[in-house]
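tool=predict chain=A
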Amino acid sequence: MTSMVQHTSDRMWTSRAVQLIEADGRRSADTHLLKVDLPEWAASGGIDLYLKDESTHPTGSLKHRLARSLFLYGLCNGWISENTTVIEASSGSTAVSEAYFAKLIGLPFIAVMVSGTSPAKTRLIEAQGGICHFVDTPSEIYTVAQRLEAELGGHFIDQFTMAERATDWRGNNNIAESVFAQMEAERHPIPEWIVVGAGTGGTSATFGRYLRYRQHPTRLCVVDVENSVFLPAYESGDGTLTSSTASRIEGIGRPRVEPSFVSQVIDGMIPVPDAASVAAMRFLSDRLGRRVGGSTGTNFWGVCTLIADMAKMGRSGSVVSLLCDSGDRYDHTYFNDEWIAEQQLDLGPPTATLTEFFDTGEWREPR
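tool=predict ok
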């Protein structure tokens, strides 16, 4: 009989872990697609706006989808086993969701993040049993995560590399498939534009690939914030660009071009100043009657610029973007006037731009 070297002891545990994650997914309903009330000049011009409300996931943000995919990817590749410490380099929301899944399958979790990350997010990570390991500069999170992986014999789940490959962009209930299914009965079921931010790059990659795979004419716009290198890299084609300063808008914007950022599937990018992101976040919160987060404000600013262009050209159609998370996580920052003053952000000009736009349809860039 041929002798065989076997490594099958973890198969039963892995099967159970996958079963637990799949069962959790079945218990969770799909997120809502909210139709936003636009002014009469837009509605009568045949322009509609929708926000995919990702704040209703069990862990409260868009990153819940990513974390689920990353854990399944790691389990099915044999990288995560019964005794693995899972490690992530994360500014917050992804780590909150990953801590949830680590707890679900009984594994320890460490989040490596920059000092100054929202205390509300760190509390959420710790509430799930996760440990927060802080570093001083954004560029350290990767090397520290890799060091902890080596020291602990753990698995660095690495959202910034794995995001674009862990999600099945062809289907399997990804966010793009969900949006198009929910749009089927609307008056403009195939959107003119989809607008998202870039953190890992995974969401934009999923949408961009899905649009091509399904042969939709919808265009994909990615909005980018201050101190992020995604837009400069997109403009120049230089993927080696870096920044020494972290983004103030949590969850999007990166100091390096992440491996999951697939620029070739993006049809256009819009720069959004931080003051505009925060002003748009507050403006949209008032209109919806509920608080949204900073990255949603960034999305909304980009949405308004595109709707302004559509109206100017006399084009009708729908625009879809994401409500990434609740604004309740940002009481001490974006909704705190003292923090705004400390950051020297002047919200007056961008707020005036949004107010005039909704009143008249005219878009004037802040000065």
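The chain has a mean pLDDT of 93. The CA atoms of residues 31 and 56 lie 6 Å apart.
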